[in-house]
Amino acid sequence: MSKEEVLCGEFFMNGDMACAEGAISAGCRFFAGYPITPATEVAERMSERIPQLGGVFIQMEDEIASMNAILGASWAGVKAMTATSGPGFSLMMENLGLGVMLETPCVVVNVQRAGPSTGLPTLVAQGDMMQARWGAHGHYEIIALVPDSPQEMFDLTITAFDLSEQYRVPVLLMADEAVGHMSEKVVIPRINQKELVSRPRPKVAPEEYLPYDSREGLVTPMAIAGEGYRFHVTGLTHDDRGYPVMTAEAQDKLIRRLVDKIRLNAKEIIRCEEIDIDDAEVVVVSYGISARIARYAVQKARGEGIKAGLLRLITVWPFAEDRIRELAPKVKAFIVPEINYGQMVREVERCAAGKAKARLVPHMGGGVHLPETVLKAIREEAR
Amino acid sequence: MLTVEANPIDCYLRVDRMPHIWCAGCGIGPAAGCFLRAIDRAGLEPDKVAVVSGIGCSGRVAGYIKLDSFHTTHGRALPFATGLKLGNPELNVVVFSGDGDIAAIGGNHLIHSARRNIDMTVICINNFNYGMTGGQMGPTTPLDARSATSPYGNFEYPFNLPYLVAACGATYVARWTVLHLRELERSIAEALVKPGFSFIEVLSPCPTVYGRQNKSPRGLDEMRSYKERSIIRDGADPKDVELSLNGTIVVGKFVDIERPTLWDCYQQMLDRANKSKKR
Fold first, then answer.
1. Of A305, B44, B116, B199, whose CB count within 10 A is highest?
2. Cα distance from A69 to chain B (closest Cα, Å)?
């Protein structure tokens, strides 16, 4: 990659733009999307930048088509991304499932706004967290990351590509309107291409290649179109050859592998940031823009002598359940501020398993919590 | 007794998946055979041919073809194929689809693919109904035809598919029936090397469900009806080739025009982008 291709240095830019630059640094050379507030700036930036690099930007007829186009591009061997918000995210669910089933590396960015339906198009929310987990039909596992700043919009977009290539799964970047639209300093480092992750590739001759060769482990080597492998892949339940097999046994073998490749590698995948956790009696569990407010509230609480800490979820799916289980016997309560009426708090409550209280601090969307609201909850639970 | 060791197109078939799922008298197999013979006829490098299908009986074609092949979701073959083609423009991308798949649930993708004039070939099997799910009416079912969801006769006007895609900007548009196998094979071979969006509608019997409900319970009944009703009219105006339950079937090559493809226009845009970068 030449010097001109990737911007390097310090910039003042918004989160959506930082996301686009992160994709470019990660080697993304295909973007398909459809305009939607508050994610449009990602597409606009890509429409300007990708042609400069000889890649493909295409505005599709809708988000269904956008999701399919990135799957097709990925099977042509190109790193591909789309970006959207709630209404478009809903339309993408059908073929997000296809991406999971075909084990297609790609990145889907959701700059969340308030819903349901058209909701508050220009205003923040975190209401799609469970949709990210369960939005497509059928049972599967997915990886979802949540940035809390324009800098992380950049950094985590690269991480999202790496994880999607490593595990052959669509990776979701669950941003929100506040992080997408806020402008801050973004440091863009020179990316060492060798450090970027690429999907496992076949090492055998085309005659011996099986698209889903489970002998290779949970993540199987991926051929791309046009290389002579003459492979077949299908959204139907399939065997190692990629051929449809309509039996419970084939379903069992396939779904276990699709789930286990994420579930059994959860420790490797999950990232959290921890502040003042060691002696904490009250732990705020938060993510995205809400975590920035939580961080301030925890600082204030410490100033008041309250043993408060912050567990910031960077990876939300798979969920950091082991960490919550470890902390539960040691703390009085988990406090979960999120811009919805209770989504990730359900996971916290499940893993706390009655050993510590899980208290939701909700915001219905359209704005963010006041630090005082979170601080008040910390004070009450510390008593 | 004549014995045949291997069919000449076996090299393009996943013979380990035979027998296929299609019913006796169905026209999808013969149409797929025309496509496979057309690959050689058009002189394509088979490793660079990719087949994309959606869902339905015709969607199963991808699964029997021993080329890079993708069996995607219902109606979404075209946008998937769009990403595949733009991701690697050297690929010769062929979409094999049914009428319900491409004109109902995938109708939006069809008109936009034709509008963009993306370089690919669509072979659309039109059997006038949803066969896989048991013979329901669809966007090509003729007025008054019976189906599992139009038991008193279909009360909706159908699409005239050649007219639709021609209006949207397709550069090659033809229609044949599976009675016209030679013409169909030649037409597919032409379409495969034709730059731009090529669309070939192939009328096919569906004796098991559509035929049974419309007085043609055997594949041969429908083939006989094609023989009696069809008329070859190359260059016919697509607006004049509407189909009806028992009327004339106009077949032929209707459109064969030149228009810059999506990739041609994209390259021009790249030139402009890189000029403005230098400034």
1. B199
2. 4
pLDDT at residue A363 is higher than 60: yes
pLDDT of residue A105 exceeding 60, the answer is yes
CATH code where residue A63 lies: 3.40.50.970
A60-103, pLDDT tens digit by residue? 999 999 999 999 999 999 999 999 999 999 999 999 999 999 99
Nearest CA-CA partner of A363 in A89, A123, A173, A135: A123
Among candidate residues B86, B109, B93, the one with its CA nearest the CA of residue A57: B86
Which residues, 6 or more positions from A194, have their beta carbon under 8 angstroms from its beta carbon? none
Mean pLDDT calculated for residue range A154-183:
98
b (16+ CB within 10 A) / e for A123-152: bbbbbbbebbbebbeeebbbbbbbbbbbbb
Residue of B nearest to A63 (CA): B79
Distance CA B165, CA A99 (A): 29
User: Does one domain contain both A212 and A181?
Assistant: no
CA triple A139-A142-A148, angle to 5 deg: 145
Gap between the Cα atoms of A30 and A136, Å rounded: 23
Interface contact B108-A98, CB threshold 8 A: no
Domain of A331, CATH number, reads 3.40.50.920
Name the band, by pLDDT with cuts 50, 70 and 90, for residue B278. Answer: low
Which chain B residue has the Cα nearest residue A245?
B17
Please check whether residue A51 is in contact with residue A57, taking contact to mean a CB–CB distance below 8 angstroms: yes
ipTM of the prediction: 0.97
B10-278 sits in which CATH class?
alpha beta
Alpha-carbon gap, residue A6 to A77, rounded angstroms:
20
Please give the pLDDT value at position B186: 98
- More reliable by pLDDT, A171 or A6: A171
Q: Which of A51, A61, A78 sits opposite B269 (nearest CB)?
A: A51
Residues A244 and A285 placed together within one structural domain of the fold: no
Residue A244 sits in the same domain as residue A306:
no
| Residue A192: predicted pLDDT | 86
pTM of the model: 0.97
pLDDT digits (tens, 9 = 90+) for B183-205: 999 999 999 999 999 999 999 99
